[in-house]
Amino acid sequence: MTGWVAVAGLGPGDDALITPQAQSALAEATDVVGYGPYVARVAPRPGLVLHPSDNRVELERAAHALDMAAAGRRVVVVSSGDPGVFAMAAALFEALETRADADALDIRILPGITAMLAAAARAGAPLGHDFAAINLSDNLKPFAEVERRLRHAARGGFAMAFYNPRSKARPHQFARVLEILREDCTPDRLVIFARAVSTPDEALRTVTLAEATPEMADMRTVVIVGSEATRRVGRWVYTPRSVP
Amino acid sequence: MTGWVAVAGLGPGDDALITPQAQSALAEATDVVGYGPYVARVAPRPGLVLHPSDNRVELERAAHALDMAAAGRRVVVVSSGDPGVFAMAAALFEALETRADADALDIRILPGITAMLAAAARAGAPLGHDFAAINLSDNLKPFAEVERRLRHAARGGFAMAFYNPRSKARPHQFARVLEILREDCTPDRLVIFARAVSTPDEALRTVTLAEATPEMADMRTVVIVGSEATRRVGRWVYTPRSVP
Fold first, then answer.
1. Is B68 exposed, middle or buried (0-12, 13-18, 19+ CB in 10 A)?
2. A interface mutation test: which of B105, B107, B114, B238 has the most A CBs within 10 A?
3. Which segments of chain A belong to CATH 3.40.1010.10?
């Protein structure tokens, strides 16, 4: 038996946004590994072993998946969104660094609909021109690095998409992010708070930077900040393709 | 009959990367509008009218789709990748600006797997930390604006994904992009040239910035430039999740 590990993105929540490629991998799998709520999205069936785990054990989870693949199992590591965007693919390669069989293992990364693309689609097309994706969590990087990226994204004229804007452990940080943005952007800059897009809990709210408050974001929110060109048409928000 | 227009992303090329949501819209459509090669990806069937058009007529195409939806047709505008990333969604909203019925029309944007995510998945996880997406075409913006964004992305520590790196009309421009990057990045920076990912013409090549040449990109290539943290493990390229 030849084992493999596929790191698959399940998209933002709606099963209609899971690619057939990811579904095929799940159909062939012997084992599914991932954060509990994501593993819960996979339908149980005979012959499939589900391995839900806690948050913040990404490296252990990745090592477990690689071990099982090396032992001949067919393993899918599930991420929400796209596995390559602030998700499990990077953790898998970090775990791979410690192994002598790195190039002998059959590894596949299966892309998915990442949260910012689902959020942008619901809002209109706010990422229709150049944009930057920034993880606001300071679990794995100093906040000074977050600030550096925010300032360059703002001064470079990019729209921005923020992942992990706010958590219980860092309640004041997103307030600081809004302060930084206000130093480099005008008060009429459009800000979209997109919560749990494509799930029953979906909520979408567009305000100006002047109106934005930290409470508008929680752990299930992606925040999109328009560029200076981003505008409204009817109920939609979009960034024109051309720069004059 | 109630008309609607959906702008759907067909992903990078492989039908296994088209979401069920996009397939459902195509199954319900009376009309499919888009650039010829993308419309050609939709299977003909009785009752479905295909409207292929040339490149660079995005606004006319969008206006045509809106007109048909207003007249009661069920219209899918097809894009490759994700319609919200350098594709048809922004053009649709630009066309919507000229209409009095903007909020009366039933419009849906259906996200897709954009080229940079498919390319990143094939390479490993080079976009596993903060990154910027930049359209290098100067059709719709001055090259000075491209240069401004490149410099801020480099100085902000972002990985980068470039769309439309090179065309026949602008053969020298990508050479200038590489020159700009060399001013702000060290020669060992990893650069991935990902051509036509998920199609039979797929080709993937990873070099250092010192080794990169303009001829490595063509119109079907997405270029991913790693951050300073981006590294190799075995045959893979990835950006670690943590910044020390």
1. buried
2. B238
3. 4-113
- The helix/strand count (H/E) of chain A reads as 7, 13
| Chain A residue nearest residue B149, CA to CA | A156
Q: Is B143 exposed, middle or buried (0-12, 13-18, 19+ CB in 10 A)?
A: middle
The residue ranking higher by pLDDT, B141 or B77, is B77
Q: Does domain B116-238 have CATH number 3.30.950.10?
A: yes
> Do B158 and A149 count as a contact with CB atoms less than 8 A apart?
yes
Out of B91, B132, B135, closest to residue A132 by CB: B132
Q: How far apart are CA A95 and CA A91, in angstroms?
A: 6
For the record, the structure tokens of B240 come out as 């670690």
Give the pLDDT means over successive 10-residue stretches in chain A (244 positions): 93 98 98 97 97 93 98 97 97 96 95 98 98 90 93 98 87 92 98 98 98 95 98 97 83
Residue B19 and residue A19: Cβ atoms within 8 Å? yes
Structure tokens at A50: 């589900």
Amino acid at B89: A
Count H helices, E strands: chain B? 7, 13
How many angstroms separate the CA of residue A83 from the nearest CA in chain B?
8
The alpha-carbon gap from A23 to the nearest alpha carbon of chain B, in Å, equals: 9
For B115-125, write each residue's pLDDT tens digit. 999 999 999 99
User: Is A153 at the interface with chain B, CB within 8 A?
Assistant: yes
Which residues in chain A have their CB less than 8 angstroms from residue B234's CB? 96, 102-103
Q: What pLDDT shows up at residue B1?
A: 60
Domain spanning A4-113, CATH architecture: 3-Layer(aba) Sandwich (3.40)
Give the minimum alpha-carbon distance from B91 to chain A in angstroms, rounded to a whole number: 7
CATH 3.30.950.10 residue spans of chain A: 116-238
pTM: 0.97
**Is A132 part of the contact surface with chain B (CB cutoff 8 Å)?**
yes
